[in-house]
Amino acid sequence: xxxxxxxxxxxxxxxxxxxxxxxxxxxxxxxxxxxxxxxxxxxxxxxxxxxxxxxxxxxxxxxxxxxxxxxxxxxxxxxxxxxxxxxxxxxxxxxxxxxxxxxxxxxxxxxxxxxxxxxxxxxxxxxxxxxxxxxxxxxxxxxxxxxxxxxxxxxxxxxxxxxxxxxxxxxxxxxxxxxxxxxxxxxxxxxxxxxxxxxxxxxxxxxxxxxxxxxxxxxxxxxxxxxxxxxxxxxxxxxxxxxxxxxxxxxxxxxxxxxxxxxxxxxxxxxxxxxxxxxxxxxxxxxxxxxxxxxxxxxxxxxxxxxxxxxxxxxxxxxxxxxxxxxxxxxxxxxxxxxxxxxxxxxxxxx
Length: 351
Description:
28% helix, Oxidized Rhodanese, domain 1, 351 residues, 2 domains, single chain, four-stranded parallel sheet, 15 strands
């Protein structure tokens, strides 16, 4: 493969990054360039087990990730920027907190930043969104397509040696990009007009229909369209092509002329549909709700939550009793939906 000389003087593969994705072959050929900052966005246990040589972690060091024998690492940088004083989980702290984290991680405008995780998951996209929101030059931010899984599949080496940042980052957050973030009130109001807005939910379908109860209520925000984050990946954990993503969106009835609101439970897995719709499919107006269902459910107005999408999908009572039975709870260690909520009318019926 031909190569050319970059501004840093090193050899650069002719296969340039595309749609903010880089291949494992590109990374293998460019990993030793001085201006490459490789960041493993996975939770601490995964980084400690193995990672790509030279990659730094944005999660707690191992000794800080264990509390009373439990792993408390969240991945996606959240160990350092989640607000532990917030009334509900996974909420972002102040600009100053992010600024300190970026400095610690070596985030600098002179660097080309490559995030990765296991592939097929949401830690790298969460980091991507954070830099996008804080107005980092996005032509220098990429995700390793397929993550470490694809890297190992190619036979490239991994290590468990811990790497530290060589120099502090100098990127300063001067203003946030509010065009890609939805406030809670904006998010709530958008759900009242499903023709003009599309609430794209990145959670598992079982959560969408209320089979499990991870929060105070089961189900989903009214008119939310179930698009599990895994749907945007191929079986080898690489992202689907822009054409395939568009087919998926067409199938779900998510139109280019709508304002898109990506969300999930606490704002992390929803970063995958945000990336796929905004970056890959290039929809013009995509906004992410970092508060997502957690913020919605903690609203003092006791906002409605639904467990099915159309009136004719009302579940059989016997079926509900079986899945909601105590014996099933003991088997699966989960709390299950017992009654359906108010039906949606958006016509979406398929997982």
